[in-house]
Amino acid sequence: MSPSTSIPDLQWAQVLEKPGAQLVYKQIPVPKPGPDEILVKIRYTGVCHTDLHAMKGDWPLERKMPLVGGHEGAGIVVAKGELVNKENDFQIGDKAGIKWLNGACLACEMCMQSDEPLCPNPQLSGYTVDGTFQQYTIGKAAMASKIPDSVALDATAPILCAGITVYKGLKESGARPGQSVAIVGAGGGLGSLAVQYAKAMGLRIVAIDSGDEKKDMCEQLGAEAFIDFSKSKDVVADVKAATPSGMGAHAVILLAVAEKPFQQATEYVRSHGSVVAIGLPGNAFLKAPVFSTVVRMINIKGSYVGNRQDGVEALNFFARGLIKAPFKTAALKDLPKIFELMEQGKIAGRYVLEVPE
């Protein structure tokens, strides 16, 4: 391991000590990077709805325990393993991002096809390995993101998961410039970024969410129409009417955290359109009538996190000033309060936690 300046033995972290427990803000040992890993001193970390699922354990995916959550960490490389020494690898002092996909085997069929998010043996930040709700975090150098020197770390944090995820979903939808996309959950952390990526990609946006604060934000970010599902008497009809042809959206991006929107999307996507499921409400199911799905040639698919190249592209959009992640800042010790607001649906945009030095 080659370190930079002095690295402490202990650090502050938000720890889930056992299933069903409350988070504990405590000191734990600073990890040491393996041969192909980097140690990142986290300065800022975003808070994603996935982190809430990780804390509650409501996904059919085994968690490590005790667990440090978080997977949108932006910071500085302070140590690295001996194999991280090539010219294009990380150097001490580089800005780096730790993402949901912390590591992959890079040898299976999926990894060999640049589908490393589909690796059968992944390492997932804040779920199967400790994540970014701590001062120092380990990541595989091959999977970490290089952050341009020109961009601020706090604003970059949400791009590392939310930004990359929605950018990948928009690519998977097949929607082309000039076509319309309906974004469900457009006022949330992922949605606020999806609106901007969609605009930057030349798409026309129908935003679906609730509340005046989210309406104002979506319209400011580039949505041509906003459907408030809490006030609408007929969401399907309103979405169709908001699309340029009145035939429905060419693509639907589902970022909702409840099941109903997933059942509704095929009703307002146009024929030959695509419904892309990204949000992961616990214990939910996708259902669609077989007849209309077949005769209207509707494409229903899932989209997971992006691969390494998707990450590079998503960060490039951001570095060029095309994406400005709406976020509010809080302290790492305030994470439990942020989770409470998230469960209540009271967060417009995203929270980014400042990690103490």
From TrEMBL:
Keyword Mitochondrion listed: no
InterPro entries, sorted: ADH-like_C, ADH-like_N, ADH_Zn_CS, ER, GroES-like_sf, NAD(P)-bd_dom_sf
Species the sequence originates in: Aspergillus puulaauensis
Keywords: Metal-binding, NAD, Oxidoreductase, Zinc
SMART domains per the UniProt record, alphabetical: PKS_ER
The UniProt record lists the keyword Cell membrane: no
Enzyme Commission number, as recorded: 1.1.1.1
Cofactor(s) listed: Zn(2+)
Enzyme category, top tier: oxidoreductase
Top-rank taxon: Eukaryota
GO molecular function, one term: zinc ion binding
Residue span(s) of domain Enoyl reductase (ER): 20-353
Family: Belongs to the zinc-containing alcohol dehydrogenase family.
GO CC terms in record: cytoplasm
Protein's UniProt name: alcohol dehydrogenase
